Amino acid sequence: MLRHVTAGIDGSPESLAAAHWAAREATRRGAALRLVHAWEWHPRPAPSVPADMSQRAWAEGMPARAVDSMRAAHPGLQVIGQAVADSPVAALLKEAEQAELLVLGSRGLGGFAGFLMGSVSQRVVARAPLPVVLVRVGGSAADEHFSAPDGISPEEIPKIPYRDVVLGLDPDPPCDELIEFAFDAARRRDSALRVIHAFSCPPDFAAADALVPIGGPELLAEHEHAVVAALRPWREKFPDVAVVGSVTEGRAADELISASAGAALVVVGRRIRESRLGTRVGPVTHAALHHAPCPVAVVPHA
């Protein structure tokens, strides 16, 4: 089977940004790019459908137009496209079963406000069996790299070092799929991996009942040890990846969003489990999806 990265497209600027990011990621992986447009017939066609064209003809022509655009922008990359007559969520989840990575676009809210996720993105992220990356409209290849000196042409941007990959980690228990994805992303970019772990002290009533004091340097050292232990086998597997760890007391979401400023990619996890309210992402992942200014990869894990 052909290895590929899949991007969902619908003709919007958001999906175009996702397609370009997916193209760059496919190049880094030595894989092909697959563009998928899912459509359903509606009594009232969208304004983007020309009056002299049927919905089917317009939808089936979209992948071909996108393929031509991606091939022109990313020479040498194998690009394939397909239109699927199905609901977007069902089609994208089916695509996710065969791809290495699924990439979706999301409208930025401006500045550091992060993403505005539609219902399709939310449901796909919460249920996809493989990593999903959310990409903001308006991003470019230059945003993944440190600032280039004046006079650098767009063709030379890949020579500028990548910004850090940031991993939000809860080491209890460690999540192999999540950690491996982050290390691999940093290796492919030849960038540093910045690991963020934040913890909260137990409430006062728990501390009062403890036989030994809870909190302070002892608790910090305990969390630092857990992070070091969780990362040890992956540092041995990826010896060329420089790792910078940050273990602090505080709100995990706040620490992660702060670290995401100036990052190339933020990597967070989603536990594969069902609740009475359905499949959901955790609060830290939810915060990253809505407030991180850079692309966010959500990795499902046990």
Cα radius of gyration in angstroms:
21 Å
Indicate the CATH architecture of the largest domain.
3-Layer(aba) Sandwich
> How many beta-strand elements?
11
Shape label: globular
Low-pLDDT segments: 109-115, 205-209
Q: Provide the β-strand percentage band.
A: 15-25%
Q: What is the chain-wise order of helices and strands?
A: EHEHEHEEHEEHEHHEHEHE
Largest sheet: 11 strands, mixed
Instruction: Give the integer mean of the pLDDT values.
Output: 85
**Count of individual helical segments:** 9
Helical content stands at 25-40%
Q: Given the helix and strand composition, which structural class is it?
A: alpha/beta
How is this fold's topology laid out?
Elements: E1 4-8, H1 13-29, E2 32-39, H2 55-73, E3 79-85, H3 88-96, E4 101-108, E5 115-116, H4 119-127, E6 132-136, E7 165-168, H5 176-189, E8 193-199, H6 204-209, H7 216-237, E9 243-249, H8 252-260, E10 265-271, H9 283-291, E11 296-301
Parallel strand pairs: 1-2, 1-4, 2-3, 4-6, 7-8, 7-10, 8-9, 10-11
Antiparallel strand pairs: 4-5, 6-11
Helix pairs in contact: 3-4, 8-9
Could you explain the architecture of this structure?
With 302 residues, the protein is of the alpha/beta class. It folds into 2 domains: 1-139, HUPs (Rossmann fold); 152-302, Rossmann fold. Helix content is 38%, strand content 22%. The protein contains 9 helices and 11 strands. Strands 1, 2, 3, 4, 5, 6, 7, 8, 9, 10 and 11 form an 11-stranded mixed β-sheet that branches. The longest helix is centred in the last third of the chain and has 22 residues, at 216-237. It starts with a strand and ends with a strand.
